[in-house]
Design brief:
The complex is a heterodimer of chains A (503) and B (144).
Chain A (H helix, E strand, L loop, with lengths): L9 E5 L9 H5 L5 E4 L4 E4 L9 H5 L5 E5 L12 H13 L4 E2 L14 E3 L20 E3 L22 E3 L3 E3 L9 H14 L3 E2 L16 E5 L8 H6 L2 E5 L10 E3 L6 H7 L7 E3 L9 H14 L6 E6 L4 H10 L4 E5 L8 E2 H6 L4 H14 L7 E5 L5 H10 L3 E4 L1 H6 L22 H4 L4 H25 L15 E3 L4 H7 L2 E2 L5
Parallel strand pairs in A: 9-19, 10-11, 11-12, 12-15, 15-16, 16-18, 18-19, 20-21
Antiparallel strand pairs in A: 1-4, 2-3, 5-17, 6-20, 7-8, 13-14
Helix pairs in contact in A: 4-14, 8-10, 11-14
Chain B lengths: L1 E5 L9 H11 L4 H5 L9 E4 L6 E4 L8 H5 L5 E4 L2 E4 L9 H5 L6 E2 L5 E2 L13 H5 L5 E5 L1
Antiparallel strand pairs in B: 1-8, 2-3, 4-5, 6-7
Classes of the chains: A alpha/beta (503), B alpha+beta (144).
């Protein structure tokens, strides 16, 4: 049928006075939007193919291109927005589940933006981080309630294994398969240089990256892809993935066309087969079952590595984390509903889960009320966009945060949200070799290190302003936070006061 | 001596280096005005290996023993401090150099005389424009 109900979302606007027909846009667009008309000596574009990734815009040497949202609209309707109508059209056409990539873009409140930080004035001195020592180092892992020393003063207490981070920021789980070899290399090298950790995701660890093992967290997910002895032993920590913020309650699906020779080898599955992660771990139906896996992994690695359990932020998150803390896990990672993904069913991504800000506050309070906060470190994930978000997360109770989208943005991602199509023009979310090449890890890792360096400076600056010289002293220090424009219930859930209320 | 090197693992075959090269030669400040509607004659060119993803930019290697200089019948091509340059007034357009260069790096300019990469020593500030303009750091200018 030739009748097409969908009008393209974006329009490619070319300034013909500037365009020199160098055809770089044509050569660099994997979606084949641009075309050179020889007879007219003119470039043209097919708006319908454009995903708004800005590759052409960024490389155009004469800045002749821009992509603008179309002003073609339906008749105004509060209930039926263009997006809703188009989704019905698409499903009526395809009969399939809608897929989306990256985080939930819908208009839910972003609590980070409704929280303000405190600063010292007169009665308590602020600290200048350029002149005085400032500690952003954190250790993740279970902390002992007390320590015993022998007669010689040495520690007798056997302490749990810890992860040492130079700043409370790690790169979150993104699998090899969902992102490219070069993206993984960039993350691995950046982690090493910045003194933090990256996470393999559930796709196994390419053997080229074993050398970065000291800065690698390996994931064991429901599909058990790429899990073997060496994989576990190489890593600094092991993460059991129970859930993901972008798609709580469901599994994953890497299409067979992305499973080339390298991905196949790394994931330990046949080439060209779909990699399907089941929704649940089929051996985990209770906290006791989880405890078994936690200890299986600890046993397998001689109790030398912390075990992380990652879950999506869902309604009962506080009780679930309380259980996880008792399961023997050293660290819990909570992924909020705005967290990213390579592909998720649209309805799940946009409608399931709860905001990380609220989940984090509830978890921290619950663990403290139960007297088990020290048993487990808490890592917050899902939509951490800046160092200010990091500071707010720490003050709400996080030991550290995971960043995924921010890291990808540093690598060149333009959030066009079409990762699932596998044609990432920036060489990130693709396995096509000609595209992967576009992400030069020498540049990529440097940009990630720059981002970490910049955030560290800003974190120190904000801490100094509050008169705090150690990030540990900020953790769970909610008196440093005030809400603006929040209801009583929201303030109660976040455990913070409204702006204007005194301590 | 610093030379222009190309990493074929990084080259994306976008051909932008060719345009930056042509732009550098114009000495103008606006690329659109300088190149719009013109056929470019860059001194760096992209080689594409057929039936593969391999592409790489090639420009004058500034050879230690330059065959082009040896073959030049008019003394237009000379080597000074390792850099091979062409004196356009002396060139008689015999194209012996074009035939003798193993890399195909000498090109015909609009006027017919020979043109070649002179590392932008006269035009750009410090770095050749193809190096500056490369979007994937595939072209590098360094001492090896």
């Amino acid at each position: 049928m030739s009748l097409n109900y969908i009008y393209p979302d974006n329009e490619v606007v070319r300034n013909y006075d500037k365009c020199i027909c160098c055809r770089a846009c044509e050569r660099q667009c994997a979606n084949e939007v641009h075309e050179y008309l020889e007879e007219a000596d003119k470039m043209i574009a097919d708006d319908a193919k454009c995903v708004n990734c800005h590759r052409c815009v960024s490389i155009c040497p004469v800045r002749a291109l821009k992509i603008v949202p179309t002003d073609h609209e339906f008749r105004k309707n509060t209930s039926w927005k263009k997006k809703d109508i188009y989704e019905v059209y698409k499903q009526a056409e395809s009969g399939g589940v809608l897929l989306s990539s990256m985080g939930n873009p819908s208009e839910f409140p972003v609590y980070w933006d409704k929280i303000l930080l405190n600063a010292s004035q007169v009665t308590n001195p602020s600290i200048d981080p350029l002149r005085e020592p400032m500690e952003t180092k954190v250790f993740l892992g279970a902390k002992e309630e007390s320590v015993k020393r022998g007669e010689d003063g040495r520690l007798i207490t056997k302490t749990s294994p810890q992860l040492k981070l130079e700043l409370p920021v790690m790169f979150s789980a993104m699998s090899y398969g969902s992102i490219s070899y070069n993206a993984h290399e960039s993350l691995a090298r950046a982690s090493q240089e910045a003194g933090t950790f990256y996470n393999t995701g559930e796709g196994g660890l390419h053997e080229d990256f074993y050398k970065y093992g000291g800065n690698t967290i390996v994931q064991v997910a429901s599909g058990r892809f790429g899990v073997h002895r060496e994989y576990l032993e190489t890593a600094a920590a092991i993460e059991i993935k129970m859930g993901q913020g972008a798609k709580p309650g469901i599994g994953g699906h890497l299409p067979g066309k992305k499973v080339g020779p390298n991905v196949s080898r790394t994931r330990m599955i046949p080439e060209g087969t779909d990699a399907i992660s089941p929704a649940p771990h089929h051996d985990i139906y209770s906290i006791e079952d989880l405890r078994q896996l936690v200890f299986s992994l600890k046993e397998a690695t001689a109790y030398k590595k912390p075990v992380i359990v990652k879950i999506a932020a869902v309604h009962n998150v506080a009780a679930i984390v309380s259980g996880i803390a008792r399961s023997g896990a050293d660290i819990v990672a909570i992924d909020g509903f705005r967290g990213g993904t390579g592909a998720a069913p649209t309805r799940i991504r946009d409608n399931v889960g709860i905001p990380i800000e609220v989940a984090l506050a509830q978890v921290d309070s619950r663990l403290r009320d139960e007297g088990i906060r020290d048993k487990i470190s808490v890592v917050a994930a899902g939509s951490i966009r800046s160092s200010a978000d990091v500071i707010k997360a720490v003050a709400l109770g996080a030991d550290a945060v995971y960043i995924g989208t921010s890291a990808l943005l540093a690598l060149g991602c333009h959030l066009c949200r079409t990762c699932n199509q596998g044609k990432c023009n920036w060489g990130i979310a693709t396995q096509r070799m000609d595209l992967v090449k576009r992400l030069n890890p020498d540049i990529g890792y440097k940009r990630l290190v720059n981002l970490m360096t910049a955030w560290k400076h800003e974190i120190e600056e904000m801490m100094g302003g509050m008169g705090i010289n150690s990030i540990e002293a900020l953790r769970g220090n909610r008196l440093m936070l005030r809400g603006v424009g929040l209801t009583d219930v929201e303030l109660r859930m976040l455990g913070i006061k409204h702006a204007g209320e005194s301590a | 001596m610093k030379r222009v090197y190309v990493n074929e693992n990084r080259c994306l075959g976008c051909h932008l280096c060719e345009y930056y090269c042509a732009f550098a030669a114009t000495g103008q400040s606006d690329m659109s005005r300088a190149l719009k509607g013109k056929k470019i004659r860059p001194r760096i060119h992209i080689e594409e290996v057929p039936n593969s993803d391999i592409t790489f930019a090639v420009s004058c290697r500034h050879c230690v023993e330059p065959l082009c200089v040896k073959g030049c019948i008019s003394g237009a091509l000379t080597k000074t401090d390792g850099v091979i340059s062409v004196d356009r007034d002396k060139c008689v357009s015999c194209y012996t150099c074009v035939l003798s260069c193993p890399y195909g790096c000498l090109v015909q300019s609009e006027s017919g005389v020979v043109d070649k990469c002179q590392l932008c020593l006269q035009t750009a500030e410090g770095t050749p424009r193809c190096v500056d303009g490369c979007i994937n750091a595939a072209i590098i200018y360094e001492e090896r």
